[in-house]
């Protein structure tokens, strides 16, 4: 179980202090598929980075299966089977797709397995295995390889995907939804998925709405989905 | 027969432990030629007017390999050698050169190799050169290679040069003259550490119509080392040139990239790209999210970059 206790995160920019996450507490139970959604700039990606250790909270505690991981390094959290897929994945000159998947797996990954992970994200594996994860790949291709790198992890207990659908074409999106559906049914314990997509929210056991650094709402998709769009549709003062 | 240290140097620079049947071979050690084998298609002969060898690859020969390693294991050696390659029309050949210095002494050991390539029409050459230094002595390990390339019509030449470790000082010079429809590819990989210095001057003259050159230089500067790259592409006719220099800075290293491109013809297309910077922090974070600590992540990034 993942537990956040009174977590806050502040940044200081030009001497002005901005609170991105505000005294946020929540638990994510094992075996849950949780979709985090909410307006842009509400703190969703920051929350994901705090859980992975990419950012450190300025207040509060994060516990993973009872262990306080608040000050733990990214790599140590990874060893506790927490995984994270970037919204904008970095590119690597000279690192092949199969090398990246093998690193993710923790040992040399058989070509057949590499291929199956790539197929799961809608890529034709034979075209990609020996390609570098560099600027020669499109944004959508890098994004799909990023997701495959999480699928290749062994014994992952918590997988965090930050807007996996962003930059992915429609056909691949359908494949991706299928992949997440499979993940849900398979071995993963918990999935936190940041998304704005209704079809992905449809997969959720629970939906958490984050707005202005806080949990605005939380519940089953039946409770949240129907009125979700209405909540954020009246914020614009210029809207007629 | 070489001792273990010499065999190890040969492995590092040429991937061989000695002469292998079927390929032409010339081993130079501590300033003198010590072993030589020619083949039916490749003749290696000593120069008469100065130190070095002439290598003749017969026209239309296919699949030939030539190994010409140089090792320096005595301290205080200052070796200057001239190697000329005459690649016959339509020949296909792979040349594996390289120099390894083991210096346990306090005097500098230096090898300056001056290689001149005469590549005839339609010939195809793959040339690889690895430079490596080792040893516990305080004497410097210095390598100054000079390469001159003349390429005739439709010739293709790929030059892969690698300097990964242990060379205290290097000044690399290359001058190329590329003929009509000929293609030159230069891949340069370099890592410096400690207080090492590396200077690279490459000038490519695109003289023949539809000639092209592609230069990809990747380097890593560690500690207090200093690197300077000075690639020059001169387009004298309808031609294409693409130069790409990427460098990673670590520690207090300093790297300069000084591009110089000149188009002397309206149809010359010459592009230079250069980037110098620290390891991208997102790359490090990504690998850490896969369980690697920062040091291991850095190693993966550098190894891939210089692969």
UniProtKB/TrEMBL annotation, chain A:
Listed Pfam families: ABC_tran
Gene3D superfamilies, per the entry: P-loop containing nucleotide triphosphate hydrolases
GO MF: ATP binding
UniProt keyword list: ATP-binding, Nucleotide-binding
InterPro entries in alphabetical order: AAA+_ATPase, ABC_transporter-like_ATP-bd, Molybdenum_import_ModC, P-loop_NTPase
Tagged with keyword ATP-binding: yes
Residue ranges annotated for the ABC transporter domain, each copy included: 2-237
Identification of the protein by name: ATP-binding cassette domain-containing protein
UniProt source species: Massilicoli timonensis
